[in-house]
Amino acid sequence: MSMNRQGRPTAPLSTSNSSQDKITFTGNRGLPMEEALLFERADSLNKSGVDLAEPKTNETRLGNLERNEDIGLPGLTEPEAIRHYVRLSQKNYAIDSGLYPLGSCTMKHNPRLNEQMARLPGFSDVHPLQPQSTVQGALALMQTLSGYLLELTGMHGVALSPKAGAHGELCGMLAIKCAHEAAGQRRNLVLVPESAHGTNPATAAFMGYTVRTLPAKADGTVSVEAVREALDDTVAGIMLTNPNTCGLFEPEVAAIADAVHEAGAYFYCDGANFNAIVGKVRPGDLGIDAMHINLHKTFSTPHGGGGPGSGPVVFSEALSPYAPLPYTIRDGENFRLIEDQAAATADGVSPLGRLTALHGQMGMFVRALTYMMSHGSDGMRQASEDAVLNANYVRNGLRDLFTQPFGDKACMHEVLFDDSFLKDTGVTTLDFAKAMIDEGYHPMTMYFPLVVHGAMLIEPTESESKDSLDLFIATLRHLAEEAKAGNVDLFQNAPTLTPRRRLDETGAARKPRLRWLPEPAREAAE
Ligand SMILES: *Cc1c(COP(=O)(O)O)cnc(C)c1O
Prior knowledge:
Blueprint: H1 18-21, H2 78-90, H3 112-118, H4 121-124, H5 136-153, E1 157-159, H6 165-182, E2 189-193, H7 199-206, E3 210-214, H8 224-230, E4 235-241, H9 253-262, E5 266-270, E6 290-292, E7 313-315, E8 327-331, E9 334-338, H10 341-346, H11 362-398, E10 415-417, H12 429-438, E11 445-446, E12 456-458, H13 466-484, H14 489-492, H15 505-510, H16 519-525
Parallel strand pairs: 2-3, 2-4, 4-5, 5-6
Antiparallel strand pairs: 1-7, 6-7, 8-9, 10-12, 11-12
Helix pairs in contact: 3-11, 5-11, 6-7, 11-13
The chain binds pyridoxal-5'-phosphate.
């Protein structure tokens, strides 16, 4: 097998001859181009893609800091550099290239109208420290977005500044801590159901709370009895996801809220799954005290690489006084940003102070508000209904071959399967996911939630067409049938069509190679 200079195989490891002439179900053939690191290109070091004029003087003023050796950086021509980055970008799977069924992540289409609005100079070219009188439009947008979030959630106060869902959790839990402190209470426990996203217990633990795990009922939901049993006067609050990470609406959520309040605790809702209920259910009506909203999930702003995330938090009336700074207010014809503690305290607000240096992710605010305004209230409600419909369409298309952990019942915006349909086939959830890659699909969320053995969590979102869902269902049916027919090779060797095969993920995490070194130095270092 040919190896590149970094000791990595330059072609897929061929364990069977079949990978070359393999015909996949969809006809997709992975990604074709091999691309070396810039440093690995023999012709690239110590040349330059631009012609710089010779300096007028050879005298150096750097003294003994002057470099005497070659700098060792690659210098490509413009077309070489462009090809390199375009080829790398083509190895990237994205929502713009195909279905991205990652459960819990809401990988929906990012409408291009959002991008156009975010690029308007009045939003994109303003500076966060500009005088407020010169950014009235931007403040009006933040005020409008805050109002829409409150309207959709039925809550009382909002903090726009948190920069992701997990950051929103920290914000909400800090407000809860402040509220207990203001009441002279020291409470050290936080209740978290075992189906929770890892960020929930991590947030509680990060703040110094002890996490008490709540068991799930046989139907995948949390029972009010289990909550009552765990509650006492040392419990600061509960962190509950609704709809939960099993794709189910918590039927006892309102009773859970009552029980939590009776015990003097607060109800933090992980709102990452808000996409299932926008325009249908208002979290405020369920008794929730604080909830983050992932603008990059529910309101179609890009996740991560396409821009920063944004995780505004909405608060109940009881918790609003403990929301962080800054926030916007309407002051007659003008808009103002309340940023300093003195002004805020005059309004009777926030011992929490600021969560971020500035005001949050302006570009995401513009994109989210654009999405809301272009959909309208009826459109947002329909988006939620379609998200639930699509998930159930996938569920219905697979339920005779796949197994649902909590019985054959309808789901919200994501459908959860376990691995019992793979029992005795020799194929695991991981193998199944790798075979999906050969078929040109990003796998669904695997092994989460932890309460379900070999979990496969599929969230198609409302932005997939029926055709796209039909092909996805047919592909998954084909793979399930192959697994049941004993075609183990198809799975255990997968992916065979990708530029790289199964990677040593543990090795990469434990012994990461974070810096490129030229070959002799690399050998010496190892
Ligand atoms: C995505 C998600 C989070 C975390 O949100 P980030 O924006 O990625 O920090 C928390 N809980 C659940 C259930 C999620 O799906």
